[in-house]
Specification:
TIM Barrel, three-stranded antiparallel β-sheet, about 325 residues, single chain, eight-stranded parallel β-sheet, about 45% helix
Length: about 325
């Protein structure tokens, strides 16, 4: 898409208009029977289950979402090479964008009224983020992925499951040169002391870090003019507290997309996912607090997003 279309997202949120985002892709594929096991699950989904990915994107389009994240979350070179798919790195990332564009065309939606985000994440082979490459090697891998996604037509980048300063800055450095909006997505949890304790960034076995400390260091180090800070992939009650921490550090645009449910052996347990009404009730708190972008992560599906979109239009009609 054009640079003007990409910048229109920032213009939209800065004037206070709420943007409804899509929900989970990975767990929605799992819900529909796509195998999500092993380090190469995302690549195998793109390669072998493209019709289901199109179907999920189509359902989110029909639910009223305007901002959509393509299925590139686990398609970095350092994720694909250990499972023998390094030679398909460019194809898989381009295909992730093409599947969304195909869904838009099939739905009859106006692509110019939508935004597609390319996901770059801290996901690593075997879900072990201690295995992420270091230094310039990490930046180079993310930069290559970002270039492919930009050339394929994404309008912005979503940096997902951020948990420390060094990796967050490496990822931002990788995408900064493309002059597209960037969602900085931090995953959070309690530190064991309940709501009265410090909210910490969750590092998958790495030392837990105070969220406020991480946020302040990242905000101070980046050019924030094109940035949207986010609390993502965190339970709703954790998100509430983490959002309050974020607001002490950041006065720019904010996105929230929580998860719901829990995993056992990397499989989502859907029986513990919140209802669409429960999700909408939580989203109302964030709308009232001035959050500009709201959607969902793991466990949150098209029904949740449709309920959110109905609520948004109802509120606008009441004004």
């Amino acid at each position: 898409m054009s640079d003007n279309h990409s910048s229109s997202l920032m213009e939209t949120v800065r004037r206070g208009e709420l943007v409804v985002m899509d929900g989970a892709l990975g767990t929605e594929l799992e819900r529909r029977g796509v195998p999500m096991e092993g380090a190469g699950w995302s690549a195998f989904a793109v390669r072998d289950h493209s019709d289901v990915i199109r179907e999920v994107h189509g359902d989110y389009l029909r639910s009223g979402a305007r901002l959509h994240i393509v299925n590139s979350f686990a398609l970095a070179r350092h994720v694909l090479e250990p499972v023998g798919l390094g030679d398909q790195f460019e194809y898989l990332n381009r295909q992730a964008v093409a599947l969304f564009d195909d869904a838009v065309t099939r739905s009859g939606a106006d692509r110019n009224s939508l935004w597609a985000a390319g996901s770059l994440s801290t996901f690593a082979a075997n879900s072990d983020r201690t295995l992420l490459p270091k230094g310039e090697a990490l930046v180079a891998n993310y930069r290559d992925q970002a270039r492919i996604l930009r050339d394929a037509g994404v309008d912005l980048f979503a940096l997902e499951m951020l948990f420390d300063v060094d990796v967050s800055l490496a990822m931002f450095e990788a995408v900064a040169g493309f002059d597209l909006p960037v969602i900085m997505g931090f995953t959070c949890d309690y530190n064991g002391a309940g709501e009265s304790g410090i909210i910490t960034a969750r590092g998958m076995g790495l030392p837990e870090l105070p969220l406020e400390q991480v946020l302040r260091q990242v905000i101070d180090a980046i050019d924030s003019s094109n940035a949207i800070f986010s609390i993502m992939h965190s339970e709703a009650e954790v998100t509430d507290v983490a959002f309050r921490v974020l607001k002490t550090c950041w006065d720019g645009p904010v996105a929230i997309y929580p998860n719901s449910g829990h995993f056992i052996d990397l499989r989502m347990q859907f029986d513990s996912v919140c209802s669409a009404d429960e999700f909408q009730h939580a989203a109302s708190r964030w709308v009232d607090a001035g959050v500009q972008i709201i959607g969902g992560c793991c466990g949150i599906g098209p029904t949740h997003i449709a309920r959110l979109n109905e609520s948004v239009h109802g509120r606008q009609g009441d004004q």
